[in-house]
Amino acid sequence: FFYRKVKGGNIDVHPSEKALIVQYEVEATILGEMGDPMLGERKECQKIIRLKSLNANTDITSLARKVVEECKLIHPSKLNEQKPPQYCNAAVLLEYFLPLPLFQIDEVANINDMDEYIELLYEDIPDKVRGSALILQLARNPDNLEELLLNDTALGALARVLREDWKQSVELATNIIYIFFCFSSFSQFHGLITHYKIGALCMNIIDHELKRHELWQEELSKKKKGLVVKQEQLLRVALYLLLNLAEDTRTELKMRNKNIVHMLVKALDRDNFELLILVVSFLKKLSIFMENKNDMVEMDIVEKLVKMIPCEHEDLLNITLRLLLNLSFDTGLRNKMVQVGLLPKLTALLGNENYKQIAMCVLYHISMDDRFKSMFAYTDCIPQLMKMLFECSDERIDLELISFCINLAANKRNVQLICEGNGLKMLMKRALKFKDPLLMKMIRNISQHDGPTKNLFIDYVGDLAAQISNDEEEEFVIECLGTLANLTIPDLDWELVLKEYKLVPYLKDKLKPGAAEDDLVLEVVIMIGTVSMDDSCAALLAKSGIIPALIELLNAQQEDDEFVCQIIYVFYQMVFHQATRDVIIKETQAPAYLIDLMHDKNNEIRKVCDNTLDIIAEYDEEWAKKIQSEKFRWHNSQWLEMVESRQMDESEQYLYGDDRIEPYIHEGDILERPDLFYSSDGLVASEGAMSPDFFNDYHLQNGDVVGQHSFAGSLGVDGFGQSVGILGRPATAYGLRPDEPYYYGCGSR
């Protein structure tokens, strides 16, 4: 058996035609043989009543009666027998059915008449609308709130009517929510709203209205304006109330559990600027919590926000940028921002003083990802930033601006644009004038890239070397040292630089225990490694007694992998030159330290160490035997460890048939197997390190590749008898990487 029930609902004006829209609900139920309901479904529908004959001379009373007679969805009680107006249109006809639209009440409310207004809340819908509108007049005056608070009967009646009748009238729901909104503006009244569960009701209403809007979009996509206005007013006041309540994080959590984020993101499809500002503001507040941010990711929020950048409404654009800033702390969302084309849009905003700062902060976060750095080269971002740098009148550049530039300078494509014209010259001039360590850090990043840009620094070697003294600020000296250390230029006469600017005593002095902070000492070691590529410089440094100081530093910093790796690299450079090789091998304990580090857990240290020991073994038989003996000992201990491990795993090893364990290796056996250490091409380092051709392309800290440097000219037949490459300088993070969010923390909320 099939049973259907139809229930009438609201009556609205058609937005463009002479017609009324009647809302109604159809409930269909399938009954079983015994009359019990088996399956049911409820659907909200609309019926359009077209009034083509409606004009200024129409008899409203007669027409209204005729509508009621022909449309069974409108109950006769909807009729109002008041005197009809002199003019007539569809809106007036609707007022004939519902004579009291929102806020259009001539009567002035009086707090002493509250009992009468409460009585109206127990009548039919038009009276309830009137009663709620009068109470709203009182609630809008903050002086009346305390007295209303004491009237439990009124508040209880309002909450009940809202709970039971909100679907019957948008005006009624808006009036009552507006009343509670007046209370929500004061934190001390939030308990009252929570007591009557108004927040939960608002969530249900918003959800219902959003679904209703989707239905309107399908049926009246181009004619919805009149229907949407009232709804957006309701949404605004309801969302504002919830935003006020969200001051309490526990209440906000309840909203989140009821999918407030999904509702808000859906509302971003609206066109009303005032509503969008409220929605984006709410989302911005919620976005500081990871759970809410994850909900926004699921709803593809970035795709919805991109349409608002740029937009003609300043407040909406500003709050949207701030929401994007909060979201840009997430790597995946930064990726999405680039994918949807936000990079050029944000770059265009750098020229607007109102949005420059916040747009730059979002771009700074995007620039933290190496894969996006090169994309800035295809916008007009870098010319704008250079203009800002050169026009800055203060001694110190804005932190956001210089941090952004530091990140961009870590990419080779960007550096080519930065150095166009007199770019590098202007940067050097400003950095040296104001002794700006952050600007010098940007210059240091520029100096790390091989190619034409590195050669530009030849003109500034003297200026940089002149800054290396105890008289300058330490942070500035660190960056100057780091820049010089990056200048691996073949034609650069490092010996002349060291002597003319008396750098050797300074470098040696900083290696003394406690002479300087670790960051500065590390840069000194890296600088020594760079200049030691020159044989005359290596001899000059060895003669000054720097090698024992490095060994002492190595012993003191043995737990710091960065220090260990860079000091070993200095030894590696020293053993390449005949003038310093004997000093390293015969006059210091450096080889013994290197043997101890052969099997360090750090792969970079092992690689540099093995390559250095291979060269030492080639030139000194005694050390060659010690190195081979240590390799044997290590191999043997590893084998025994593996055997013991297998024995622990096998409770009865003889049950495994022909499976056998390799016998113990005797020292004589391994020493008589040169194939473990040599190949037809020469020395082969142990532990998987490379042969004398070990010097493959090496990746620096920012992903740029250093090609092979031929060393045949200086090595010649005095080396391995063949042309080989040279090991690239180990990567250094020099404290914090420039692409870490260190210089600027965008904790905007």
TrEMBL record:
One BP term from GO: neuroblast proliferation
GO terms, molecular function: intraciliary transport particle B binding; kinesin binding; protein phosphatase binding
ARM repeats: 545-589
GO cellular component assignments: axoneme; centrosome; ciliary basal body; condensed nuclear chromosome; dendrite cytoplasm; endoplasmic reticulum; glutamatergic synapse; Golgi apparatus
Residues spanning the membrane: none
SMART domains recorded: ARM, KAP
PANTHER family associated with the record: KINESIN-ASSOCIATED PROTEIN 3, KINESIN-ASSOCIATED PROTEINS
Protein's UniProt name: Kinesin associated protein 3
Annotated organism of origin: Capra hircus
